[in-house]
C-alpha cells in the first residue's frame, strides 16, 4: 500500500490511523503510516521517505516539540524523586548535582528519540504532509498589487473602498 496524503479537506481522508497506533509506531521507530519502514536514519535524523510506503516522513518538521515533551516527561518523572530524596536524607548539594545532572541527561537522551518518533506519527495523523513547506510557503505568495496612495482626504463609503480590493483578490492566493 502506497502512502497518499489526505488531499480532501475533511470528508474522506485516505485512511485515518488511530492516534495511538500512529504514536506507538513512531515511538518504536516504525513508519506511522505502514508500520514496516523505519522513521530514523541515525539517532534523530528522520528518513526523507519511508522505504516501504513512501510516506514523506522527512518533510514532517517536528522542530521543538520533541524536546518540549521530553523535558515535560523527564521533569515530571525525576523532580518528585529529587524532592523526596532531599526531604528524606538532606544530602549535600554536590551529591545532588553529581547524581541528578547525569541522570537527567541520560533520561532525556533515552526518551528524546521515541518522543520524536511519536511526534512524527502524530503529525502524520493530523494530516501534515510537508505541503506547508512546499507550495503553501511564503515564497509562493504573489507580490501585492501596488496600492494607490491613500491620503487622509477622500474617505469614500466603507463598502465601496473595500469592495474592489476583495473582488480583485487572486482566488488561489492564501487567505491570511
Ligand atoms: Zn511506511
From TrEMBL:
Bias regions of kind Pro residues — which residues?
142-155
Q: Does the keyword Kinase apply?
A: no
Specify the protein name.
Answer: DUF983 domain-containing protein
The Basic and acidic residues compositionally biased stretches are: 167-176
Residue ranges spanning the membrane: these are 68-85, 97-115
Supply the InterPro entries for this chain.
DUF983
Kindly give the Pfam families that the UniProt entry links to this protein: DUF983 (PF06170)
Keywords attached to this entry: Membrane, Transmembrane, Transmembrane helix
Region Disordered, as annotated, extends over 135-176
Signal sequence: where?
none
Amino acid composition bias (Low complexity), ranges on this chain: 156-166
